[in-house]
Amino acid sequence: MNCKLAVSKRPGESRPYELNRPFKSDSSHLSSDNLAKRSPTMYLIRQNQNLLDHGTRESISAVSEDIEGMGRSLHQAKNNFKAIFNASSEILCIISLNSLQYLEINKAYEQRTGYSRREILGKAKLGFWSNEEDRNRVIHKLLAKGRLRGQQAIFSTKKGERLSAFLSAETVEFDGEQCALVIAEDVSIRRHAEEARRDLAQRLINAQEADFTYIGRELHDNISQSLALVNMELEKIRLTLSDVSIDSDAGLVRLSGKLRELGRVVGHLSHRYHSSTLEILGLVVASKSLCQEFADQYLLPTQCDCIGVLNNLTADVSLCLFRVMQEALRNIAKHGRATKVNVKLIGTLNQIHLNISDDGIGFNPNGKNIKAGLGLISMRERLNFIGGKFAIVSKPGSGTRVEATVPLYGSPTPVGSTDFERRL
């Protein structure tokens, strides 16, 4: 825009300029005879345009006020950024991409790393970087991509202690210089909390298994045996009675049958809490036995296929998969309304995969009214503890599939592994 600054003493006079913004001087001007002079008015004018009426002209002072307001806003924005920067719980630092000097660090950086601002600012030190190569690698990636997100990294404190963090970075302009805003989320505390949670979960599982073992053995060795002895005594008494009526004898027979049925129920409970088959004969035999008991108890056809399953699984893995299988079958009997069930246990050199599916009514796992029961929570916790994964796939009207995968860290020999790997 071609503009000139003009001074007019007669605002009513028309000039070949357009008034943009007038500015009135605040100083008073007196003549030698103490008469007030006309206050000169400054105008920002555009060439080749006529001036408009003086009463409608906007003062240049408005421009000055706008600039001052922008300055105050900028100052306030800087203060806000500084407050947020220092209040952040994450480790934050700003590093020049040219000199690699630290231009700013926040309080979390000082607290977590042990370095003070005086030791870091204005210096091209490594700071919390473990070595120069790590820092240069991050800088090169940042320059190439413009940003980094959620990379796991290992840093060091001033004392040389290990600091695990998720690293993110962004290229920013700071004081007119191209810089890297580095954000490090310290996950050391989270990792310690997770380890404590896992330890607590394992203790609870161990305590639960100890209770299950005790209850199972008591049911099998005491209650079940006692019921069998009572039934034998009852049968002996029935046979010794000579003058008993036909109705009374039939009643004794029915009572004996109820005792035998009660004994079978107690036996099922005993196996549910503690499977001697699993402990002695292993996961394959125990899984087939469990599926057969389930089919007999609920009159629900249940197919169990074990392919390539390892013979020498650890006790933790075998027990975990067996408990997951038990809970899944229990949920099918309680909620599934299925007509058939398929159980597959597939083992390779690297992992074991358990798949339990039914053709029941299904459900929406993500539904608002669906809440995980203690059984599902227990399954997840057991699998998490041994590094396994758990998933439920279902939708209304299409049945349900429960999947559990457990990694194997050794190199045991699977049953029929060569033939199974070839089919995969």
List its salient traits.
five-stranded mixed β-sheet, alpha+beta, elongated, 424 residues, five-stranded antiparallel β-sheet, 4 domains, Beta-Lactamase, 11 helices, disordered N terminus
Structural overview:
The protein has 424 residues and is α+β, with helices and mostly antiparallel strands. Helix content is 46%, strand content 23%. It folds into 4 domains: 3-59, no CATH class; 88-186, 2-Layer Sandwich (Beta-Lactamase); 192-274; 282-424, Heat Shock Protein 90 (2-Layer Sandwich), CATH 3.30.565. The strands form 3 sheets. Strands 5-4-8-7-6 form a 5-stranded antiparallel sheet. It has a 5-stranded mixed sheet with strand order 9-10-11-13-12, with helices on one face. A hairpin with a 5-residue loop joins strand 4 (91-96) and strand 5. Helix 5 packs across helix 10. It is elongated. Residues 1-46, 51-57 and 410-424 have low confidence and may be disordered.
CATH top-level class of the largest domain:
Alpha Beta
Q: Could you give the order of the helices and strands?
A: EEEHEEHHHEEEHHHHEHEEHEEH
- Say which CATH homologous superfamily of the largest domain is assigned: Histidine kinase-like ATPase, C-terminal domain
Main sheet specs: 5 strands, antiparallel
Anisotropy-based shape: elongated
Compile the SSE list and pairings.
Blueprint: E1 3-8, E2 17-24, E3 41-47, H1 61-87, E4 91-96, E5 102-105, H2 107-113, H3 117-120, H4 132-145, E6 147-156, E7 162-174, E8 177-186, H5 188-240, H6 246-273, H7 276-281, H8 283-298, E9 302-307, H9 315-336, E10 341-347, E11 351-358, H10 374-385, E12 389-394, E13 400-407, H11 417-423
Parallel strand pairs: 9-10
Antiparallel strand pairs: 1-3, 2-3, 4-5, 4-8, 6-7, 7-8, 10-11, 11-13, 12-13
Helix pairs in contact: 5-6, 5-10, 8-9, 9-10
